[in-house]
Amino acid sequence: MNRLLPASALLGLLLTSLGSLAATKNESEPHLYYSMTPGRYALIGQEPDGGAAYSGNAEIRYQDGTLTLVKTINGTTTTATGKVERASIAEADVLRFYWPSHSSTCLLRGDLDNYSRLSCYWIDNGVEHKRPGLEAYFPTETWPENRQR
Questions:
Q1: Rounded distance, CA 146 to CA 127, Å?
Q2: How does pLDDT run along the chain (149 residues), one tens digit per residue?
Q3: Count of beta carbons in the 10 Å neighbourhood of residue 42
Q4: Which residues form the signal peptide (predicted)?
Q5: Domains in the chain, ordered, with CATH?
């Protein structure tokens, strides 16, 4: 008789139980992304359809249930509002930011210092691009120039 079978069945049951407990969420609590995202970032990007590359900086704040993204590129500052939404294709949570002229969809992951890193694609409203614009946001909280603040 295989002695490992009962132990593996028990382990499977335990993991399934833990997974269902982790999936239980109090709907009155804000999504985890709202606490993970605020901070200062360096950003790099590329305009849609293979356009020009650019870089800048950004700050994301969370207040009253809404994210605010303020980014500065080549001396021009723009502000967007954001929220956590469910992507219909992958059925995964994403961050969506909205400007008057375009919108972006971002994936959020932790970096090696447990700060958030965002990778985004963006499109101009009403334009059918061959390729979306791209942006990556890197947290700057641990950079030496920001440690003194």
A1: 38
A2: 455 445 454 444 444 443 444 444 566 788 999 999 999 999 999 999 999 999 999 999 999 889 999 999 999 999 999 999 998 887 899 999 999 999 999 999 988 878 899 999 999 999 999 999 999 999 998 888 877 65
A3: 14
A4: 1-22
A5: 32-147 (2.40.128.120)
Amino acid in position 103: S
Read off the pTM.
0.77
CA distance 83 to 94: 8
Round to whole Å and give the CA distance between 13 and 35. Answer: 32
What does DSSP say about strands 92-98 and 76-87: parallel, antiparallel, or unpaired? antiparallel
The token pair that represents 126 in the structure block: 């009403």
Let me know: does 35 contact 86? Beta carbons within 8 Å: no
SS3 93: strand
User: Which residues are paired to 105 by β-bridges?
Assistant: 96, 121
Residue type, 99: W
With H, G, I as helix, E, B as strand and everything else as coil, classify residue 131: coil
- Which letter, b or e, does each residue of 96-107 get, where b requires 16 or more Cβ atoms within 10 Å of its Cβ? bbebeebbbbbe
